[in-house]
Write a structure and sequence with these properties.
Blueprint (H helix, E strand, L loop, with lengths): L1 E5 L3 H12 L4 E5 L2 H10 L4 E5 L7 H10 L6 E5 L4 H8 L4 E4 L4 H15 L6 E4 L2 E4 L4 E4 L2 E2 L4 H12 L7 H8 L8 H15 L4 E4 L3 E4 L6
Parallel strand pairs: 1-2, 1-3, 3-4, 4-5
Antiparallel strand pairs: 6-7, 7-8, 8-9, 10-11
Helix pairs in contact: 2-3, 6-8
Length: 221
């Protein structure tokens, strides 16, 4: 799952990125409103964390431009502003908000909930056939047997299970698995899928030639 962090304070940005990377997310950064707007317009993200107090273009303007352009990516607003009118104005086109300072545990919980909601899941437990993924605990089982996963394996199976029932193109998987600093290589993607099949069974992830991948036991849409 790929997250864009828009925050002009390097320490806060680094703390958020380190926390989210440790809980299974691939993170990109933007430190001003113009860069954030461009990234949100041209890249595909599962969620955007957006500070309102940004240089070059304020966060609220960025958010309104995304929404006016039809970009419906879930947005979690961060704000240090204390006035309720400003909070209400900022949250209106957003999906949720947190007021600084905040606890990282709370931010992670909000991120998980927003991504689940945006993909149509009401609980942190995702299931497909005998596979069960607890996105809160980052714990996967196959027929009730715990299966250890590398961070990349976790991100891949989590993305497919969040989008179960849909064939996910390889290009989309690459875009959401890897951050800006990683090479997006189709052969590397296939290698991760092969490792997951060894752990979960050869039919756990189906290949639809020329279309993409989906978790087993689900009808494609």
């Amino acid at each position: 799952m790929r997250v864009l962090i828009v925050e002009d304070e390097p320490r806060i940005c680094a703390d958020i990125s380190r926390t989210l990377s440790g809980t299974g997310y691939s993170c990109d950064w933007a430190t001003d409103g113009e860069d954030a707007w461009f990234r949100g317009e041209t890249e595909s993200y599962d969620l955007i964390i957006l500070d309102l107090g940004l240089p070059k273009m304020d966060g609220l303007t960025v958010l309104k431009r995304w929404r006016a352009a039809g970009r419906q990516t879930p947005v979690l607003v961060l704000t240090a502003r204390g006035a309720w009118p400003e909070r209400v104005e900022g949250i209106a086109p957003a999906d949720d908000y947190l007021t600084k300072p905040f606890r990282m545990e709370e931010l992670v919980a909000r991120v998980r909930a927003l991504i689940r909601r945006s993909t149509g899941h009401g609980t942190p437990i995702l299931e497909a056939g005998g596979i069960q993924l607890d996105t809160k605990q980052m714990h996967l089982t196959l027929d009730d047997v715990p299966i250890p996963l590398s961070p990349l394996e976790y991100r891949l199976i989590a993305y497919l299970m969040h989008h179960k029932g849909r064939v996910v193109p390889a290009s989309e998987l690459l875009e959401h698995l890897y951050g800006d600093d990683d090479a997006r290589d189709a052969n590397a993607l296939e290698a991760v899928i092969m490792r997951l099949r060894k752990k979960l069974g050869a039919r756990a992830i189906e290949t639809r030639r020329g279309f993409g991948y989906l978790v087993a036991g689900e009808e494609a849409t």
